[in-house]
Amino acid sequence: MARKLRVAFIGAGGIAGTHMRYLREMDDVELVAASDVSEVAVKRRSEEFEIPHIYTDYENMLNDVDVDAISVCTPNGFHAPCTLAALEAGNHVLVEKPLAMNSEEGQQMVDKANQQGLKLVIGFQHRYEARTRFVKNAVDEGKLGKILYGRVQALRRRGIPNWGVFGRKELQGGGPLIDIGVHVLEMCHFTMGAPKPVAATGLTHTYLGDKPSSVISQWENWDHKTYTVEDLAVGHIRFENGASLSIEASFAAHIEKNEWNFTLMGEKGGATWDPPAIFSDEHDHMVHTKPDFLPSGRRADHFRLKMRNFVEHVLYDKPTMAPAEHGLMVQKMLDGLYQSGQERREVSID
Question: How many Cβ atoms sit within 10 Å of the Cβ of residue 202?
């Protein structure tokens, strides 16, 4: 029989169920163990996905079980300690986005993986989307020329999460910027070629989430009393290669509708992610190119592709599309935007 990748999980909450579901479908993966501070949650996952060993202390799990890889599915505040412990125990790691609470933690994680000779992958599933790959291929083929500017939008009109700890800065590191903005930011940065960020300017605003509301919302009755994150974040990133990027992210903003998109502008052409299209000049006319067909269903399921890429990266040494170094650059951009918002000035990104 071919060797199977033996996987354990730290965190058995919402996103862990998605990891488990996709991994269980793969013939070359074995789900071995799971840990969560909630015994009820980890027992439920154990029964649902037939995971034989469960723990309420991940350190005990790491000491007891023999696995190849760990999936870290905790709140952001626990990404770093759990990942560092898993790497120290000799396991490859897939950690959900964002990489950590801040770039200092992220750097420790990257350094530890390199020291241990282990693979560390960040859970950036949206770069596996067909639309992302369409734009990325166009960039790589030179259709846009030198990329000058990117515009990122991850906006909800009124979509403050009413579950988990998304409103608690001490556990999440921030609000929409680090939670949903990170997704579109990483897609845009990835398609731009992952240039090195050098400076950030940002502002954050809280004006709705920390107050009770009777307005009918996407999700109602969030805990406004513990809400310590921003409702809206806006900012600008400058890159070493001369390009720049602007970002808007909100849980709550007075806008017409939710927006989830990025735009690129280059010397030879431009692109949008939604709808996927390339804008250029041909035959003395301005034209745009759009795909007539994009794959759908199972083969286009970007979360499944993310999980499969991790398995193949660890088990068969195939390249990963989401290296931790990309996660660290994104983390540094988030840090810079938050720091700039606090200090009301442009800050350098090391």
Answer: 25
Look at residue 1 in the predicted model and tell me its pLDDT: 46
Closest CA to 123 of 350, 317, 309, 298: 309
Question: How far, in Å, CA of 12 to CA of 19, rounded?
Answer: 10
Position 296 scores a pLDDT of: 85
Cα 345 to the center of its chain, rounded Å: 26
Residue 287 phi, psi dihedral angles, 5° rounding: -130, 160
- Spatial CA neighbour of 79 closest among 56, 104, 53: 104
* Chain center to CA of 195: 17
Burial of 101 (C-beta count, 10 Å sphere; 0-12/13-18/19+): buried
Q: What is the maximal distance between C-alpha atoms in the chain? A: 68
Residues 307 and 324: their CA atoms lie apart, in Å, by 15
Amino acid at 175: G
Residues making up the chain, counted from first to last? 350
Mind giving me the DSSP string for 310-323?
Answer: HHHHHHS-PPPSSB
Tokens representing residue 196 in the block:
């090195």
- Distance separating alpha carbons of residues 267 and 265, to the nearest angstrom: 7
| Beta-sheet strand order (sheet of 197-205) | 285-289, 277-282, 269-272, 259-266, 147-155, 244-250, 232-239, 197-205, 347-348
- pLDDT by residue (tens digit) across 64-113? 999 999 999 999 999 999 999 999 999 999 999 999 999 999 999 999 99
Tokens 């969030």 correspond to 222
